[in-house]
Amino acid sequence: MSKHPQDKIDFDFDRQHIWHPYTSMTQALPVFGVSSAKGCELTLEDGRTLIDGTSSWWACVHGYGQEQILAAMQAQLSRLSHVMFGGITHQPAVELSKKLIAMTCEPLTKVFLCDSGSIAVEVALKMALQYWQGRGQPAKQRILTVKHGYHGDTFAAMSVCDPEGGMHAMFGQAVTQQLFAPAPQTPFGEPLRSDDLHAMRALMAEQHHSIAAVILEPVLQGAGGMRCYAPEYLVELRALCDEFDILLVLDEIATGFGRTGKLFAYEHAGIAPDLLCLGKALTGGYISLAATLCSDEVAAGISDSPAGVFMHGPTFMGNPLACAAACASLELINTNRWQAQVSRIEAQLKAELAEAADYPAVKQVRVLGAMGVLEMHQAVNTARLQQQFVDLGVWIRPFANLIYIMPPYVIDEAQLSRLTAAMKHVAQALTANAGQGTEQSTEQGAGFISHG
């Protein structure tokens, strides 16, 4: 139980007044009160502990209560928690930018520090449009992407999310109409299918004069279905962008910093983007921060545009407290043997989830790096399954027809086995309902994972 009466959560007030992600204020999903967290465990207000299988939406890769990150934040808090970035700079921002440039591929030399993943995408798309203004091609204003993508909830980001599973229909003409090619079809680990980019090439050939950039999630599409595709797709896409004079934007907000088994997912393909969006694990999940990186060429084009400057500047841009947390998180990435951690998680997930492929309710089992997915034949009841997982002592939040985990890299073997055992237990229980249509998602926006 909570030790301090003032810490007791007023669930009635929460239900009546506080929005939660993708939920209704009149038919709210149940919420569970968390009082503290340590390592890979969340402690509920009633004293129960849950093994976290989501890394708090893929962000807390080092677990909770990580002393090095907390110490960096406490030291920075006592010196300078926030200062405007306009006309001012500070050491945490400089140090973080140096680290990001050193960690990413060679063409990326300019860093824009912003508030959240969705804003990092907004920044990248605005950069692409301003770049072409500076290069004397202002007609290049459209963005090309692939179906089943997810890039955030702000308006430009929404416009490049999946046109059917995203929010285009409900916001109508307020969402800019972009161009969509079919999603990559070649599974990860298989040779690229010869026709996988035919539609992409056709769109570029027909409309490259109006296309400013292509944006997509490399290798792993997240909220669009946890789809893993062949890295060779990116190799061919990079070549097409070069051929048709189109910028390539990679959204690594969810995949960056080791999640797929490479430090950045684009490394699976050995390519370099023109712009790169980062977030989530950037600070280890301790405070919101994101970044958009671009090449010298892109920066020069923006500077040559009629505005002469890049037209974006959030109030909390380059926040020193967040930058200090990010510097500590990246130090842990560099020293914590993340490759061995992720490799161990991947091997255990493959071994322990394999049998679920034979369950009648399970359509497919997918594992890539520190990510494991049971794709069901039909949508699941989010609220019901969430309660079942809590009863089993784990925090797993399914969406649409997916039961998935993205655990912290520091998870131990026994904790990970608890997560996979819970996934299999719930999937087996669903088997009795397979094909009867009794399991439906009740969560609005169940196909989304926040880029905030």
Automatic annotation (TrEMBL):
Keywords: Aminotransferase, Biotin biosynthesis, Cytoplasm, Pyridoxal phosphate, S-adenosyl-L-methionine, Transferase. Homodimer. This is Adenosylmethionine-8-amino-7-oxononanoate aminotransferase. Its EC number is 2.6.1.62. GO terms for molecular function: adenosylmethionine-8-amino-7-oxononanoate transaminase activity; pyridoxal phosphate binding. It catalyses: (8S)-8-amino-7-oxononanoate + S-adenosyl-L-methionine = S-adenosyl-4-methylsulfanyl-2-oxobutanoate + (7R,8S)-7,8-diammoniononanoate. GO terms for cellular component: cytoplasm. One of its GO terms (biological process) is biotin biosynthetic process. The record marks Y22 as: Participates in the substrate recognition with KAPA and in a stacking interaction with the adenine ring of SAM. Its main location: cytoplasm. Pathway: Cofactor biosynthesis; biotin biosynthesis; 7,8-diaminononanoate from 8-amino-7-oxononanoate (SAM route): step 1/1. InterPro entries: Aminotrans_3 (IPR005814), Aminotrans_3_PPA_site (IPR049704), BioA (IPR005815), PyrdxlP-dep_Trfase (IPR015424), PyrdxlP-dep_Trfase_major (IPR015421), PyrdxlP-dep_Trfase_small (IPR015422). Substrate binds at W57, Y150, K280, G313, R397. The gene is bioA. The modification N6-(pyridoxal phosphate)lysine is found at K280. Its cofactor is pyridoxal 5'-phosphate.
